[in-house]
Amino acid sequence: MGRPAKGRATTNAAPTIILVRPQLGENIGMAARAMLNCGLSSLRLVAPRDGWPNPKAERAASGADVVLDKAKVFDTVEAAVADMGRVVATTARNRELSQRIVTPRRAAAEIRSWTAEGDKVGVLFGPERTGLTNDDMVQADTALSIPLNPQFSSLNIAQAVLLVAYEWAMAGEEAPAERMSDHSTRPATKDELQNLFDHLERALDQSGFLRHKAMRPAMVNNLRALLQRTAMTEQEVRSFHGVIKFLSKRKHDEE
Amino acid sequence: MGRPAKGRATTNAAPTIILVRPQLGENIGMAARAMLNCGLSSLRLVAPRDGWPNPKAERAASGADVVLDKAKVFDTVEAAVADMGRVVATTARNRELSQRIVTPRRAAAEIRSWTAEGDKVGVLFGPERTGLTNDDMVQADTALSIPLNPQFSSLNIAQAVLLVAYEWAMAGEEAPAERMSDHSTRPATKDELQNLFDHLERALDQSGFLRHKAMRPAMVNNLRALLQRTAMTEQEVRSFHGVIKFLSKRKHDEE
Asked: CB A28: neighbour CB atoms within 10 A?
């Protein structure tokens, strides 16, 4: 039942989110909430404008207090990234710096490969109004830009943190892209489907529905194809047996 | 310069976001902001608790007014999805219903393929506290669940809209996952690099650095490999020419 790989993910294997000179406590709290939703809990703050701790951040965290309680505060970006092996800087704008710019998805894959090699990774997010300065950006080896609507680009800092953290979570996700919602049942086996088709065929034969010998094979095949397409669950197969049984009985009663 | 494919994307080719019985105006506004960041602008509201229009929604939209102005209000989910060919319902929980559940990424790919076939697509999001009811869910052909931290799953409605809209935007994104930030320059050509190496070699020859005939080939190759590894831009090549020229001059002056 245990998932040891996930346990390890809370040490070096997960990146640290570093908010640089954040202005609003609400945004720090919402960023913490976004992080924890995605399984991240290591937060650093560089010179938060309104000091630290900040009650407004706690209110906005909606239960992600563990992230805020463990947050470390630094005076400078240099100090905040000093122990990091790799640093990614988020930027909304094109910069004069010649830097490699990656999407959040590419960044997530690279972060996973760096942490797998034992590197400690930090992701910088700039202040609300101005974003990161060039002096901040040069602390990073890679720039990250979220390629959204060029006509309306106004993500707030907590939304940017959410998207980066979400891509990180997805990059390690082993869950299937598609599943069935009902855990009390399972897809029907081919055997169960065969039994159902047989039951249906018998019932239709008895009812006279398949009395045209020449058309019979085509009609049976079309019905089978129709039921196969629905990808029935074991429970639905049982329900369908009931439906056939019930309908057949009515037929007999009327006779 | 024009991108006609993007223009078409604002008609049937983009899904409609449908907020079912939303409670807080702030969340409607933030959802609109998240949508427009991702290039979505078609919004429907089913029985918003505080009526419509809502000044709190406008304040929270941060400029995404166009989405709110065009929003359509309906009394029931049935009415809101009546003209839709496909409906996706977002859910945080496992349901008793036997429904296909997909991730936002899978849903985005499916939505793109449905709209490409001309289907109108709606995505339902439930009220803040309770989420969609089973009666709402059965209006949809597909359920969407965001597979985040099972120990802390508390996305608000605008964050859920952001992630679904973001995946939709990424599914149609032709932008490269990686690029260079500085548009005023470009990667150096091999020809330009060759000229630079020649320049460096001449300068080092003149300086006497390469005077050991036997070691010369290895030293030259190591220098070339080092400079190749930096993947220089055309501008950086020009700067480097300047550096060599300047250093060589100083050398001659000292002699």
From this structure: 30
Query: CA–CA separation, B139 vs B144, rounded Å?
Result: 13
Residues A245 and A122 in one domain: no
State whether residue A166 sits within 8 Å of chain B by CB. Answer: yes
> Does residue A1 surpass a pLDDT of 50?
no
Determine, yes or no, domain membership for A167.
yes
Q: Is A230 on the interface with B (CB under 8 A)?
A: no
pLDDT at A179 over 50: yes
Task: Write the CB contacts of B160 (distance below 8 Å, at least 6 apart in sequence).
Answer: B90, B125, B146
Strand-pair partners of A86: A121
Residues A64 and A128 in one domain: yes
Residue spans of beta strands (DSSP E) within A92-187: 100-102, 121-125, 142-144, 178-180
Asked whether residue A154 falls in the same domain as residue A35, the answer is yes
Residue where the block lists tokens 């020809």: B191
Q: At residue A70, what are phi and psi to the nearest 5 degrees?
A: -90, -5
B37 touches chain A (CB under 8 A): yes
A58 CB-near residues (< 8 Å, 6+ apart): A29, A65, A68
Task: Find all residues with CB under 8 Å of B105, minimum gap 6, and list them.
Answer: A170, A177, B167, B171
Partner A contacted by B230 (CB < 8 A): no
For residue B206, what are the domain limits? 190-254
Contacts of A62 in chain B (CB under 8 A): 154, 156
Q: Percentage of chain B surpassing pLDDT 70?
A: 82
Residue B2: predicted pLDDT: 34
Q: Are A180 and B98 an interchain contact pair (Cβ–Cβ within 8 Å)?
A: yes
Say if residues A245 and A251 touch (Cβ distance below 8 Å). no
